[in-house]
Amino acid sequence: MIRISPVRVIDEAGNQLGVMPTLEALRLAQERGYDLVEVAPTASPPVTRLLDFGQYKYELAKREKEAKRKSRSVEFKEVRLKPKIGQGDFDTKVRRAIEFLEEGDRVKVAVQFRGRELTHPQIGRELLAKFADLLKDHGILERAPLLEGKSMHITIASTHKPKPREVAPGDRAEKPGADASETLDEATGTAVAVAVDAAGDEPAETGE
């Protein structure tokens, strides 16, 4: 509920209606079939707008999900090789690593040694060097091959801009009802109040 008066009013078409007492603004909104939403509470006087509050919340939720989709974090992917890997499998691993890098993710490429294979670490170094060379157009080698236990690995950082993830059908914003009394304004990052029902607690008049 908006409890500050007076307020600056913007109508449903975006036109400035001027400054008026909150009760008058609320009556105007009801006459036109809209809710009175406070969109800039820190302004002097606060700015309100005539809106369909349910549609307003729905649009905010859609924009928030779209912003999150476009600004996803970089992930760390791993590709595992064996010292005696066949050429076909090796090529498949290279293509998979390129896909990860094209998505903007970082890639860890590891060679897993077993038993007596550990006595020939140069095989792993040569394999990783060859792998990194095939990925040079898509990423930058961050570290030289390092043997840790039974594994030797390198890390490659992508030179591509991270691509947005596809939003799953079940993750789309659902249109909320208009019975809520508060939401978050995307432009100001602050809570916005809404006057939905004039039959309830009336906003306090504080004068000019």
Walk me through what this model shows:
The protein is α+β, with helices and mostly antiparallel strands and 208 residues long. The chain folds into 2 domains: 7-69 and 176-195, Translation initiation factor 3 (IF-3), N-terminal domain (Ubiquitin-like (UB roll), Roll); 76-158, Translation initiation factor 3 (IF-3), C-terminal domain (Translation Initiation Factor IF3, 2-Layer Sandwich), CATH 3.30.110.10. The protein is 28% helix and 26% strand. It has helices spanning 22-32, 53-70, 87-102, 121-134, and strands spanning 7-10, 16-20, 35-40, 47-51, 76-81, 106-112, 139-141, 146-148, 151-158, 182-184, 191-195. A 6-stranded mixed sheet has the order 2-1-4-3-11-10. Strands 5, 6, 7, 8 and 9 form a 5-stranded mixed sheet that branches. The longest helix is centred in the N-terminal third of the chain and has 18 residues, at 53-70.
Q: Widest sheet: strand order?
A: 2-1-4-3-11-10
Shape: rod-shaped
Q: Which structural class is indicated by helix and strand composition?
A: alpha+beta
Helix and strand string, N-terminal first? Answer: EEHEEHEHEHEEEEE
CATH class of the largest domain: Alpha Beta
Q: Per DSSP, what share of the residues sits in E-state strands of 2 or more residues?
A: 25-35%
Helix content: 25-40%
Radius of gyration: 29 Å
Biggest beta sheet summary: 6 strands, mixed
Q: Residue-averaged pLDDT, rounded?
A: 77
**Count of the separate structural domains:** 2
CATH architecture of the largest domain: Roll
Count the DSSP helices.
4
User: Which ranges are low-confidence, i.e. pLDDT below 50, for 5 or more consecutive residues?
Assistant: 171-208
The CATH superfamily of the largest domain is known as: Translation initiation factor 3 (IF-3), N-terminal domain
Say what the CATH topology of the largest domain is: Ubiquitin-like (UB roll)
Q: Termini, distance in Å?
A: 19 Å
Q: Give the beta-strand count.
A: 11
